[in-house]
Amino acid sequence: MATDQLSVVFGALADPTRRAILGRLADGPATVNELAEPFDITLPAISKHLKVLERAGLISRGREKQWRPCRLEAEPLRAATEWMGRYRQFWESSFDKLDDHLRTLMKGTGQ
Amino acid sequence: MATDQLSVVFGALADPTRRAILGRLADGPATVNELAEPFDITLPAISKHLKVLERAGLISRGREKQWRPCRLEAEPLRAATEWMGRYRQFWESSFDKLDDHLRTLMKGTGQ
DNA sequence: CGGTTAATTAGCTAGTCGGTAAAGTATGCC
DNA sequence: GGCATACTTTACCGACTAGCTAATTAACCG
Q1: Do the chains contact at B81 and A88, CB–CB below 8 Å?
Q2: Which of the two ends of chain B, N or C, has the fewest CB atoms closer than 10 A to its terminal CB?
Q3: How many CA atoms lie within 13 A of B22 on its CB side?
Q4: pLDDT in tens, B52-99
Q5: What is the biggest distance separating any 2 CA atoms in chain A, rounded to whole angstroms?
Q6: How far does the CA of A46 sit from the C1' of D24, in Å?
Q7: pLDDT single digits (tens) A13-22
Q8: B31 CB inside 7 Å of strand C
Q9: What is the per-residue pLDDT across A55-97, written as a single tens digit (0 to 9) for each?
Q10: Element holding B83 (H helix, E strand)
């Protein structure tokens, strides 16, 4: 996968286990074992997923006694959402049913 | 990569070439050669990228004479954006700086 | 200290990804 | 038909990914 920030973030989101982990973290911080509990995969596999999420800046990790609590860091999702925002008009209106010429024309009118 | 729709869409977006192709298609339909022109990669590589985008439902392809014009289909981005929407509060407010207890408490108040 | 719990690292396998070159398919046009 | 244009498919390659088991590190507890 490419190394630019957006690619890393989208790449991190392209896995249901990682999205589920983020979902869990939306309810508050959790330890690695707590995060692993719902899944049928081993702890090392979870550890790898967490590293991917950390590289994407989607989680941060503390140190508390023998636990390493994870916490959600949603900031990178702002950039991802903003990137998608460019296309919002194409799914919120019926513009995507029109041909290019007409679309260009209408864009010029400020709608 | 997993096969659920959201994973396939995020996976398709996790590559800068594919995102650039979508960017080009936002200006209107284009043929494969037109899409390939800005890049330093071979046509087969572009063809593969297009197949990934098509599998994600992000483009559709027609047939006009000997050309196979591609057109943007932004609909899948709606689901992707909606998924991220769950986390909007975490980057639009300072909630993500507070601890879980406080966040839970404030959520109960409706903001 | 020794043992337990928490989590990461190392090393392996199988499969996917992004790219290539070369061959194949489809259509248009003389 | 025959040739050119526009892609696509096939076969291959090196790098990366997701999973495993086994071993290691780190911190607490008695």
Answers
A1: yes
A2: C
A3: 28
A4: 999 999 999 998 888 899 999 999 999 999 999 999 999 886 554 554
A5: 63
A6: 17
A7: 999 999 999 9
A8: no
A9: 999 999 998 888 899 999 999 999 999 999 999 999 886 554 5
A10: helix B75-85
Take residue B13 and report the two structure tokens written for it. 């977006």
B60 - beta bridge partners?
A: B71
User: Which alpha helices (H) appear in B26-74, and where do they start and end?
Assistant: 32-36, 43-55
Q: Which residue is nearest to nucleotide D22 (CA to C1')?
A: A44
Q: By the 8 A CB rule, do A70 and A34 touch?
A: no
* Cβ–Cβ < 8 Å for B80, B10: yes
Across the interface, of A2, A16, A78, the residue whose CB is closest to B16 is A2
- In order of A111, B2, B93, B101, the CA distances from A29 in angstroms are 43, 26, 17, 10
